[in-house]
Amino acid sequence: MSGARMRVISLETHDIRFPTSAELDGSDAMNPDPDYSAAYVVLRTDEDEKGHGFAFTIGRGNDVQTAAIRALEGHIVDRDCSDLGAVYQDLIGDSQLRWLGPEKGVMHMAISAVMNALWDLRARREGKPLWLLLAEMSPEEIVSLVDFRYITDALTPAEALEILRAAEPGRAGRIAALREHGYPAYTTSPGWLGYDDDKLRRLCKEALDEGFSQIKLKVGADLDDDIRRMRIAREVCGDGYPIAIDANQRWDVSDAIRWVQALAEFGPWWVEEPTSPDDVLGHAAIARAVAPVPVATGEHVQNRIVFKQLLQSEAISYLQLDAARVGGVNENIAILLLAAKFGVPVCPHAGGVGLCELVQHLAMFDFVSVSGSKEGRVIEYIDHLHEHFVDPVVIRDGGYVAPEAAGFSSAMRPASLAAFTYPWGQYWTSAVAQSSPAAEARRTSAVTHPPVLKGRSA
């Protein structure tokens, strides 16, 4: 995609961390005490425009992620970045940085942050929300953004064009429907593993009252505990109400099969991340053994190649792409097209810091221009940290309201950057932060691993 010249003159990074471990928000069987964090990047152009992006982490290591983003500075600064297909190819093609992956891990997440910031910049420049910017592009423009290397045995450029062209006739009507009715959501807020039974009960009831058509519970630490919590959720929500379960990679293949079979009496809507995200054959074996309980995964899947194999091996019934782990918008378009080719619904991973804000755009683009359907599709929603964004998500009657503000909804409020920059922000130097149970561990980490607070400005 190319357009008017878009010369980037500086790249800033910020290590932003929120103390979610204090209330056990985000706690699960694999991640008991996360501090939801953003390795945040701001790009500026010679016309004083800004683009915002980030990689999501859960605390320590955010400094490493921020440094990885800065390592890409030479590919972006003092360059016309209007052709986002070409920029993406250059970022994933740097042979020395690629060696650290290839196309996975910390460097790939850094590419995602930078590419998403460029897309935010492009959408702001054109005065459109990102979902609409993408939805109004031609099939040829969309296909030009995708790197088809390693996936042509599953999806060719010609097949991608066919999928996109098939969706063209109803695009205008779906845009109108999206603006009128929004996009269905499910909530994980009741299900964090650290919550007590009373809180679980209360939050399940609130989810029903707020119109959510599905909830999700974290599982995997203790089977008896999971059976008790699923029983509580089923009692509150009623028979037939969709309750998904999420193990966050906790199990070996045999343990996953045994555990899901033990919970099958409660009718799980799906089991999410039952084992290592890299174990394609393991997911396929689990899917066969626990059927008819569907398997879902994707938030930690590293790239389009692993998604391709999950689809080819019929290992998943729901694909859960993440807006900030693979190579940004470009690679997520490839993943959406792969899912459409195999007829698997996309139910994106969200929550975290700003992932709800980002992923709504990808799901809405999928509805308008790729799959053409909302059937079997929901976007995850978690009700925290939205107040730190300039254009936070809006939920109405259990669904996402289509954003209308220009951009990718990724810009954080300046006051939040000032307060939660780690470790010298206003919150982290406050008495509350200094006296928290994890304060000593955080201080030790900060001394051992000095943070990267800001990148150079050209």
TrEMBL record:
Checking SUPFAM superfamilies in the record gives: Enolase C-terminal domain-like, Enolase N-terminal domain-like
Q: Which UniProt keywords apply?
A: Lyase, Magnesium, Metal-binding
Q: What Pfam family does this protein match (any one)?
A: MR_MLE_N
Enzyme Commission code(s) on record: 4.2.1.68
Q: Which GO terms describe its biological process?
A: amino acid catabolic process; carbohydrate catabolic process
Q: Which residues form a coiled coil?
A: none
Q: Where is this region: Disordered?
A: 439-458
The record's listing under SMART domains reads: MR_MLE
Q: Which domain of life is it from?
A: Bacteria
Q: Does the keyword Lyase apply?
A: yes
Question: According to its UniProt record, which reaction does this protein catalyse?
Answer: L-fuconate = 2-dehydro-3-deoxy-L-fuconate + H2O
List, alphabetically, the InterPro entries matched.
Enolase-like_C_sf (IPR036849), Enolase-like_N (IPR029017), Enolase_C-like (IPR029065), L-fuconate_dehydratase (IPR034610), Mandel_Rmase/mucon_lact_enz_CS (IPR018110), Mandelate_racemase_C (IPR013342), Mandelate_racemase_N_dom (IPR013341), RHMD-like (IPR046945)
Q: What cofactors does this protein use?
A: Mg(2+)
Q: What class of enzyme is it?
A: lyase
Domain Mandelate racemase/muconate lactonizing enzyme C-terminal residue range list: 197-293
Query: Has UniProt tagged this entry with the keyword Lyase?
Result: yes
Cite the PANTHER family for this sequence.
ENOLASE SUPERFAMILY, MANDELATE RACEMASE, MITOCHONDRIAL ENOLASE SUPERFAMILY MEMBER 1
Identification of the protein by name = L-fuconate dehydratase
This chain's source organism reads Herbidospora galbida
Its taxonomic placement starts with: Bacteria, Bacillati, Actinomycetota, Actinomycetes, Streptosporangiales
